[in-house]
Design goal:
With about 130 residues, the protein is mostly helical. The chain is about 50% helix and about 10% strand. About 10% of the residues are buried.
Length: about 130
């Protein structure tokens, strides 16, 4: 079992193909995922959007009789354009604050859902009352 670092982009490679996520923490996956670990100037966000734009081509190159699957060797045949370092730096400076905010909002939503799930049963059975 291999542990992938936080920031790894995860692509579901079968049933269904094309779900994408960026790992918040270190993760392990099973054979249903392809993992992309960012290196050098290629940020998680850049890789995420690059893969997202390639999903139709990835799906078109998938194979399988029971359910479609994309292999590592197939992924290696898919080409993309690499921008200059200046473009990557400009992209990262614009997109990273947006992703940080999204991550913060998602974590806040999880906390609020947890609070709701804890509080609602107590409100329903009268253990807790709301005062005016």
């Amino acid at each position: 079992m291999k542990i992938m670092p936080a920031g790894t982009i995860l692509l579901s490679s079968r049933a269904p193909i094309g779900y994408l996520a960026i790992a918040r923490t270190n993760v392990t996956t099973n054979q249903g995922f392809k993992s992309f670990v960012p290196k050098s100037i290629f940020s998680s966000e850049y890789i995420f959007f690059t893969i997202q734009t390639l999903i139709p081509e990835i799906e078109a190159n998938s194979s399988g009789s029971t359910f479609k699957e994309v292999s590592t060797s197939t992924l290696k045949t898919i080409k993309t354009i690499l921008p200059t370092n200046e473009v990557l730096l400009a992209f990262n400076s614009l997109i990273k604050p947006i992703f940080r905010k999204q991550d913060s909002v998602e974590l806040e939503n999880q906390q609020l859902a947890s609070l709701r799930d804890w509080l609602l049963p107590m409100l329903m059975n009268g253990q807790v009352k709301i005062q005016d």
